[in-house]
């Protein structure tokens, strides 16, 4: 059974982001005791766009735990029905946001580690080679599809508007870094026999969302 490991840069960045989340959480917990909270919890939904190979659009469920007026734990799960990599995709991001908040407006920065997962992505391809008049002739023998899950890191900004005590309109904009796993594996059998796997690499993808939250 093959094991796939994340590339070292991805692991290093993910570890730094995770440690930053923990530090911000502990720091914000101490400030929360002396600050007027806008409401400890928030839940809501949004419509999210993520440009991964091509633009993907889908609904998202979001939530926050506020620690005072300036810090919060922030998370979101998004679903994209269509994508060029697989039949559908989903992201799960959980981290912190910090910034300034007035009676009606808020402006924050966010750092959210998480994952990006695809269904029915190409994982392995086998090509059979037979002797030809001049060069070997390759024929596609088989394809194997499966779920592909990759490490992600969402960084960017958040703008909020509070028309009433329990309601908030939210707009997110940022860069989603995706640290892609090795794959798919290409097997060449016959006159030319070899097997190779595409290397790990990271990529940047623009992300935007707009939604409504209920605060309580």
Give the structure's gist in a few sentences:
It contains one helix and ten strands, in the order H-E-E-E-E-E-E-E-E-E-E.
Strand portion: over 45%
Q: Assign an overall shape.
A: elongated
Total strands? 10
Identify low-pLDDT runs: 1-7, 30-36
**In which range does the helix fraction lie?**
10-25%
Name of the CATH class? Mainly Beta
Mind telling me the C-alpha Rg?
Answer: 22 Å
Widest β-sheet, arrangement of strands = 1-2-3-4-5-6-7-10
What this model shows, in words?
The protein has 216 residues and is mainly β. It has a single domain, classed as Porin, CATH 2.40.160. It contains one helix and ten strands; from the N terminus they run αββββββββββ. It has an eight-stranded antiparallel barrel. Strand 3 and strand 4 form a beta hairpin. It starts with 7 loop residues before the first helix and ends with a strand. The N terminus is likely disordered.
What keywords describe this structure?
single chain, 216 residues, mainly beta, Porin, eight-stranded antiparallel β-barrel, 1 helix, disordered N terminus
């Amino acid at each position: 059974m093959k094991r796939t490991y994340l590339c070292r840069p991805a692991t290093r960045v993910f570890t730094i982001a995770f440690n930053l989340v923990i530090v911000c959480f502990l720091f914000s917990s101490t400030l929360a005791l002396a600050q007027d909270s806008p409401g400890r919890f928030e839940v809501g939904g949004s419509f999210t766009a993520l440009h991964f190979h091509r633009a993907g659009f889908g609904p998202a469920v979001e939530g926050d735990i506020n620690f005072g007026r300036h810090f919060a734990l922030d998370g979101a799960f998004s679903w994209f029905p269509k994508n060029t990599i697989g039949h559908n995709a989903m992201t799960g991001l959980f981290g912190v946001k910090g910034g300034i908040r007035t009676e009606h407006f808020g402006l924050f920065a966010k750092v959210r580690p998480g994952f990006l997962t695809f269904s029915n992505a190409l994982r392995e391809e086998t090509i059979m080679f037979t002797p030809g008049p001049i060069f070997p002739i390759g024929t596609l023998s088989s394809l194997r599809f499966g779920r592909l899950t990759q490490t992600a890191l969402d960084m960017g900004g958040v703008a909020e508007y509070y028309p009433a005590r329990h309601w908030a309109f939210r707009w997110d904009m940022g860069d989603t870094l995706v640290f892609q796993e090795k794959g798919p594996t290409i097997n060449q059998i016959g006159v030319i026999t070899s097997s190779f796997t595409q290397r790990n690499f990271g990529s940047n993808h623009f992300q935007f969302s707009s939604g409504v939250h209920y605060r309580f």
